[in-house]
Amino acid sequence: MPADLPDHQRVVITGVGLTAPNGNNLPEFREALLQGRSGVRDYEIRYIGATHAGVCDFDTQRHQSKKDVRRGTRAGSVGVYASNEAILDAGIEWDAVDTSRVGIYLGVTEHGNVETENEIYELTGYDYDVSFWSHHHNPRTVANNPAGEVALNMGIHGPHYTIGAACAAGNAGLIQGLQMLRLNECDLALAGGVSESIRTFGIFASFKSQGALAHHEDPTKASRPFDVARSGIVVAEGAAVYTLERLADAKQRDAKIYGEIVGYAMNTDATDFVLPNNERQAECVELALRRAGLSANQIDIVSTHATGTSSGDLQECKALRKVFKNSANTRFNNTKSFIGHAMGAAGALELAGNLGSFTDGQCHATINVDDLDPDCDLPGLVLNEPQEFGSVNYILNNSFGMLGINSVVIVKRI
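and the corresponding structure tokens:
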């Protein structure tokens, strides 16, 4: 079990920076979740027209200049904001940090689509004369851009890269940060996920062509996992970045600790481009539990991945029933019902939304469930109102993605 590991191999969360459609820091985000406040709004995007989205509203110039915002990317901006806020939240004296020993590991679903779509659109106004093509295109669209923009902004000289893991990417960033700390490749990891997905019409168009783009006359009720009337995905943007440190280092500087990452797993369905496989999902959860040395009935809260699609929600519920069939005390909730699907940032944001349970003893609800689908009726599913829990010791965070990539992270109160 991780508790048997020496302190220099145990990895803890000491800071959280985020921007979500309903909050720009962890206290705001947690308050919105407990109060049932959605961040989904009406939204219009080129070629699609009226739709819904989870839109972030943060001060882009809090940590960047106007010039940097203009020449960079939205994914870079949300990453820069969340990373700087994570350092501030952790109480780290940045001027004293050896930045060659800081690593940046940010999960993404996709990157470069926004910039390419925008530049092609603008080029139409010049009769496709490529002499008007932006010279910023290449650095904007390279896969390492979001993490690279953070490195440039913060003067970080250690390894930086983005991790392409579809909608499992937020967890994947945390897992990579943990592994690099255990390998002594860095002393501080900025890890999590970022998303600029609402800025690309292609994502909306693809979901719409699949019949998987949610719609409701009230945008705040469009994202409704587990409900009979669920109609699909609400696309969202955002970021959540964590400062990860070895427990020994956190103790040495008397840092506040949100929790310890005690278990994780990633695997692959190898079944279909988009349709999930509940057997592989269950195996991923079981592997994370084994690595943590835990039984299913020790997990207090499961943060579900459920996106509001008919097949996706059903498959995850099948997986969870298999693993947690004898877990009478486990509660299940869903954060996408509040903010939509933040793609590469989803797993990291959803874990952040549940971290407050360690201190306030509440499990936030899944909202917008007016008519629960009987096939999604999990014992312990918390619906519409938060539930007082008492003591929360373990949170398990599910995050799954296209092409069958699955990820799970387990965090322990410490």
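(Above: one complete record from the training split.) The mean pLDDT is 97.
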